[in-house]
Design goal:
With about 300 residues, the protein is α/β, with parallel strands linked by helices. About 25% of the residues lie in helices and about 20% in strands. The strands form four sheets. The protein has an eight-stranded mixed sheet with strand order 2-1-3-4-14-13-12-11, with helices on one face. Strands 5-10 form a two-stranded antiparallel sheet. Strands 6-9 form a two-stranded antiparallel sheet.
Length: about 300
């Protein structure tokens, strides 16, 4: 009888303590997959493999986040994508973009993710697709894409000194940094992309906006050299170089056109706005001051692709 009473007491205490368990015990884990493209470009440029590993290291201590990375392109084992909340592509794009391979199979796979509300991010060259291959998909998933000979890709140093009130901008201070910042994206419904808008069930918010000088608009661009008349004709216009969307399916997305120079990850605000964006599309909590994780010279030198150094 005494043993029965003791057992009932223990069960009661366990149930009682459960009522007061911390929220952490029931916190939802947000799975993020960062996909790096194959090596390209000279050393310390397009360091996709090193970049996703550095991003993963910066995010690994965030609460309730489970970060995975994939190296050298689309994974052979797609099980890494199971139950994911967000996927970010940092890779070369254009006609050989990883997402358009296998005769459209991968596009269908990604579309199936978005129908479940999975967040998507595309970074640097990864925002460029051939319009006939995946332009409509990119506008539907993340609000826009780089379009060859419509968009342009000069190397320049924009000043980002004003930010919208948005979770991605938490803790981000004004900064300027030299990069191959693409602009004049092909946005949904032909919008310029430098103002927030609700359109076709999508909430679009520009995150990083700056006005290129006429010298920047005149080129040279990285390729083709330019200038392009329609780029020059928009003199004085502000341009979005990072933007965020909330889709009608409940998912989120972002596009980020910087990321050419690997060493830019050493800039706290450059790094923070991207890391915040990754958490946001996964619907994970963003710290009040944004993601703060120091990056050392050793971190920047880690995992670089062998490119004839």
């Amino acid at each position: 009888m005494k043993r029965s009473i003791a057992t009932l007491t223990l069960i009661s205490l366990t149930l009682f303590s459960g009522l007061f368990a911390s929220d952490d015990a029931f916190a939802e884990t947000h799975k993020i997959v960062l996909v790096a493209g194959k090596p390209s470009h000279p050393a310390r440029m397009h360091e996709f493999n090193a970049g996703v590993q550095l991003m993963a290291k910066c995010l690994q201590d965030q609460p309730d986040v489970d970060v995975h990375f994939v190296l050298n392109g689309w994974p052979k084992d797609e099980s890494v994508f199971e139950d994911t909340d967000a996927v970010v592509f940092f890779m070369d794009g254009g006609g050989r973009h990883e997402i358009v391979q296998e005769n459209g199979k991968r596009l269908k796979t990604i579309q199936s993710w978005t129908e479940k509300g999975v967040g998507l991010g595309f970074m640097h060259y990864g925002v460029e697709v051939v319009a006939d291959q995946a332009g409509e998909e990119m506008k539907r998933w993340v609000g826009g894409h780089y379009d060859h000979m419509f968009s342009c890709n000069p190397i320049w140093e924009p000043v980002f000194n004003q930010f919208p009130k948005h979770p991605i901008t938490q803790g981000v201070e004004p900064f300027k940094i030299k990069d191959e910042w693409y602009f004049n994206m092909r946005f949904l419904a032909g919008i310029e992309g430098n103002q927030p808008v609700d359109l076709d069930g999508m909430k679009f918010v520009p995150i990083l906006v700056a006005s290129p000088s006429d010298d920047v608009r005149d080129g040279p661009y990285v390729y083709p050299q330019g200038p392009y008349e329609h780029i020059e004709a928009s003199s004085g216009r502000a341009e979005a170089m990072m933007w965020a969307v909330e889709r009608a399916d409940g998912g989120r997305g972002f596009g980020f056109t910087g990321g050419h120079f690997h060493d830019n990850w050493g800039n706290e605000n450059f790094r923070k706005v991207v890391l915040n964006g990754v958490l946001w599309i996964a619907k994970a909590e963003i710290p009040a001051n944004g993601v703060e994780h120091p990056v050392s010279e050793d971190d920047l030198n880690a995992n670089l692709d062998p490119k004839g150094r």
